[in-house]
Hints:
The complex is a heterodimer of chains A (157) and B (330). Chain A is α+β, with helices and mostly antiparallel strands and 157 residues long. Chain A has helices at 3-57, 77-89, 91-98; strands spanning 63-66, 69-76, 101-109, 113-120, 127-139, 144-156. Chain A has one domain (3-156). Chain A contains 3 helices and 6 strands, in the order αββααββββ. In chain A, strands 1-2-5-6-3-4 form a 6-stranded mixed β-sheet. Chain A is rod-shaped. Chain B folds into 3 domains: 34-125, no CATH class; 130-239; 250-323, no CATH class. In chain B, 45% of the residues lie in helices and 28% in strands. Chain B is built from 6 helices and 12 strands. In chain B, the strands form 2 sheets. Chain B has a 6-stranded mixed β-sheet with strand order 3-2-1-5-6-4, sandwiched between helices. Chain B has a 6-stranded mixed β-sheet with strand order 8-7-9-10-11-12. In chain B, strand 2 and strand 3 form a beta hairpin. In chain B, helix 4 (241-272) runs antiparallel to helix 5 (276-295) and helix 5 (276-295) runs antiparallel to helix 6. The mean pLDDT of chain B is 93.
Amino acid sequence: MSKAQIQIGETIAVLFVFFILIVIGFIFYVKVIKSNIELEKEELSQLKAIGIAQRVMFLPEVQCSEDNIIIDNCIDVLKLDSAQNLMKENELYYYDLLEFGNVNVTQIYPNDAKWIIYSRKTSDFKNKFNTNVPISLYNPVTRKHSFGVLTIETLLK
Amino acid sequence: MMNKKAFEMQFNWIFVLVAGAAILLFFTVVVVKQRSVSETSTKTTVLKSIEAIITGASISTDTINIINIPSSDIEISCNRVSLGSLSRQYQSLILFAPSLVKGNRLITQTLAFSTPYRATNLLYITSPQLRYIIIGNTNLANEINKSLPSDLKKEFYQSVPQIKNLNNYKVRFIVFGDMVDFPKALEKMPDYDATAVRINGDNEKGIIEFYQKDGTSWLSKGSSFYIGKSSLIGVVYADTLDMYNCNMLNTFSRLNLVTKIYVEKTKKIMQSTASLPCKQSYGNALNHLSIVYEASSDFNKENIDKISDAAKSLADENKNAQLYSCPLIY
């Protein structure tokens, strides 16, 4: 073997080691990026779930109002029954706002009662978030408030 | 004839060249890929911000926000927000905005659409780089000027001013009264970047006519209608007739759904009340609500007139209900 052939062999070996190091570095970089993306995805999913919960709480279809002044964290009981049917009839419209999940209102004091106002399920979900919001249920006819919980279950792909 | 040594030297150089090119190519590919990933990531961040703004708009009324975003060109059309190749399609989006929002800051505003009960919130988005020129000497012109965010690049004139070109990527004229001539200083702007709207009406309802630059003059692009101050503000932000009508159709479909709830609610209150004045008030309210419900099925002048009249009567019935200590309709 001539001197030149040995030199070329050496260079190839150096290049080989160089590329191996680059590949190892690249694999490490991709792994770090992947874990960051997973974390970001989780955070985004949680934000989305909170966003949907907020949307539900401020739907004019269920919110209490007194002379067009909105009462926070209050659901009008008389609107609930109609909202139940309306949201079922217009499921596709509300899907754009609430995506996959369930929205229930449960009265826990003084009596027990439950309204399922929205339900659109999928078996193909990766994350499931449950948001419970304590609310006041107002009946404008009796002018009485009862205590309840608004449960928003969000299924995210 | 080349000797063995010289051949070896030449081969060495070729080898170094090939190896060097391979290394350079590898890093170039990595850099190009990384750049495209980074661009996509930035666009996704902006789209997410817009989604968050849309969510925020549905829960807060009468707000103005300035939002910093990575510098981008956001294209907004009917039920669609796009950033280059990335886009988000909505089934029913209420977002009054110019067709192109440029820059690294967004100005957002929300107002309630009430007839007279709140049916939805209207969201408006624009860029501080866009120039708004309001011309008019009516109270309505003054009110609209005051209702627009102070951070907006807006100018208010009572009569036709001498317009200078300030190199804005878009200029929008809001004219109350007779249409103004196209300013000479803006003749070099692309046609679709200079738009105008002429407003003829009052605080409650009216007719609007959309214009677009056509060489050295204005070209009418059609007319539409507004109902209430919030939809009139929408006329300022939406720079095309299609965009405005699309948003109003979406607003009307939401009004239709919410009205149905109020119809059912009023029926229930009516059934459970014994007081005669209350029953009468609810009966009248039900008629007005039915008119709003039917008229909100389509967005046109006739329906706007019907909704406007029914809304006034409904507000009166709500006051009556309050007067007789009956449960309120809305």
